[in-house]
What does this fold into?
Amino acid sequence: MDPRIERQLLETRRHFFGKSAAGIGTAALASLLNPTLFADDKPNKISEPHGVMNAFHHAPTAKRVIYLFMAGAPSQIDLLDYKPKLNEMFDKELPDSIRKGQRITTMTSGQSRLPIAPSAFKFKQHGKAGTWVSELLPHTAKMVDDLCVIKTVNTEAINHDPAITYIQTGSQLPGRPSMGAWLSYGLGKSTEELPSFVVLHSTWSAKRDAQALYSRLWGSGWLPSEHQGVSLRSKGDPVLYLSNPDGVSAKVRRNMLDGLSKLNQEEFAQTGDPEINTRIAQYEMAYKMQTSVPELTDISKEPKHILDMYGPDVHKKGTFAANCLQARRLAERGVRFTQIFIRGWDQHGNLPRDIRLQCKDVDQGSAALIQDLKQRGMLDDTLVIWGGEFGRTVYCQGTLTKTQYGRDHHPRCFSIWMAGGGIKPGMVYGETDDFSYNVIENPIHFHDLNTTILHCLGINHEKLTYRFQGRDFRLTDIHGNLIKDILV
It folds into this structure.
């Protein structure tokens, strides 16, 4: 922004708040300290917009989202995109007519051959729709009637960081708001005790290093910083500095925050900087989280049959199963967007060994989350998404044998699944060719996927925008089509 224009805006704010700071400041502080003062009596608060949107663009089918993100890109050929004809093509060269000159990464562009590597794992059909699922996902296979498997998601990004940034923010370039931040901005908070956007990180078992995940993936970009995701830790305090130090009581903490709020209100009256109100709100949220987060993370009162459903890993903090249970508990408490990351899926070599370990990490927890939500009557209005940033190649990277192979990055087609929140259950959408290389029916771009997620939450993706540096930005950038066929 032009600093001269910014100065004029600030001077206008100063003039206004100089005359009315006392009344507005008192009302703002009162609303932060006791939000019920300004609450109405309408039921079902979680589904009402309290953000920049004063009403839904259309009737929502989901109140909240739980996004299970497989960072590193799971192999669709070995999990959900069954290609039996590949067994007859073992070690044959990938036909030029299939590759069509597509660029590939530098990790395989120097290979003298691109030999076809069929999956080493068995597939069976499951559910009423006869959905093909790998033996690696036995728990997922049992619940396919609750899932919509999409096999034709695609992206232009071919490397991890741009691809993850793309699906999370709508752009391969860093700096834009993440999906959870957009939802917080548009729909506002649905709980006063916890953030509207929470991020959980999971341990993984694959025997290789993993791509780093940067905080900008759950950041607010140029939206007000109050909308960024809060990342909970799996060891020690869930949030740094959440506990009061020795000698500091809750009363002392409260008095300190009240004093800070008064000072910040005076500063806001002078400058009109909106980040000051954000800071006040963050202090208040931290105070409330001192009570709510310890209760959230204490699973000692969960029934044994629920814990058994998630499997033995649920008792180990930071595992994917433990985080899935936490996601359900967050959903119960009104958190609008929960994202669980698990790394370790970048299997360029030793794929058969590592993918077994990764699937064991996530399979039971994912299935238990769906069952848990369903039996509580929450799946109908909770949208659950499982997937990564792109897929893996049909051709082998490195040495190929019947039992050993690796796969490179493949953005042209890959598989995800969605469940609940207005998505049709028990269906498979889209089709790829015999090589799981190209889409031949119903392609789904990242922007189409994000358009559909927003739609389920009552948002028209073209209408939720934010003006920054002279342009109206949105999560789906400049395009995005609603996937009507998968909606209830």
The chain is about 35% helix and 15% strand. Residues 164 and 389 are 5 Å apart (CA to CA).
